[in-house]
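Hey, can you fold this one?
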Amino acid sequence: MLIGVYYPESPLGRLPGKRLEALAAEAVRQHVQLVFFDEKGVDLKRNLVKGQTFERGRWTERELPLPSVVIDEQPRPPADRSPIEQSLSRRVTFASHAIQGKLRTMELLQRSDSLRGLLIPTAPARDASDVLRALEAYGRVVLKPDNGRQGEGIVAVEADGLYYRWLEGFRLQKLDFAMLDRAVRALGRNGLYLVQPYINCVTEKGEPFDFRIRAQRNGEGGWTVTRIYPRLGQPGAVASNSRGRNGRTIELEPFLKERFPQQHPFIERHLRHLALEIAACADGGSDFPLDELEIDLTIDEGLRTWFYEADTSPQAADHEPERAVHTIAYAKRIAARAAAASNLR
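Sure. Predicted structure:
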């Protein structure tokens, strides 16, 4: 069985080395062949792909038939795919698909009696008047891109007399109303922005934190939790994320024991249960079946759990082997089902 791993350009140069190694090793264990290829390697006239395979301890360029299934390492909505990607997806089954944005995900969770209580009140932020309404209701708010990821583009805003404090990353500005309006409109030029109340979840050191949970489809097609880990931002940061100087990740159990000494035995099970329920809900409302999600939850001082967001762009620096197990197994399942459906035609 040949499985393709697709990245828009130069997968061996752009994908993390640990991911390449983990996927290649797991493919050997599960008795499948992988070919890593990009858009330039697709030849639909001859039904071939040119890409890299890992054989006998080294990478080799080969020309092979179209794979049975494709793992897309940068899934995008169909409308955002290149013409070649769109044509390829009509010939070959893709195992990976993109989630439909933060607002759409929240709309899906809102329909669930058991999940809607996790949601932070959210509204579009198109200009300063949208932000002012939220400030009057909540005091301090956060602006975030609907299709953002890894804490990028998040801004905290709060009133300061006749002015407004605008905190983006670690850069603090003081804006009047006209400047605020221009700043909000500028954010929206690259896509929809959302406004939410700021949720104060910080450690005793003032570090904002949340829990990143990776949920994946396994070889049986069901959802499973691969890993849960806390992410901590630097004191004073707007968001907790692990990019550059803005944050770090730590192990779950010691963090729970320190932050929630009385409740820690139950919190991991609670987070795991919620992640599986969220994944099933998001998948059920998606136009295409999802294969994995990064789900961000947090817990405030009153022990209330909040849903921040879910994303389909995988970041798995410290658990690539665990991720690869389910990634390959699910792709095998999809390939087998596609082959069985083809035989029935």
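The chain has three domains: 2-97+325-344, 102-118+202-311, 123-197. Let me know if you want another pass with a different chain boundary.
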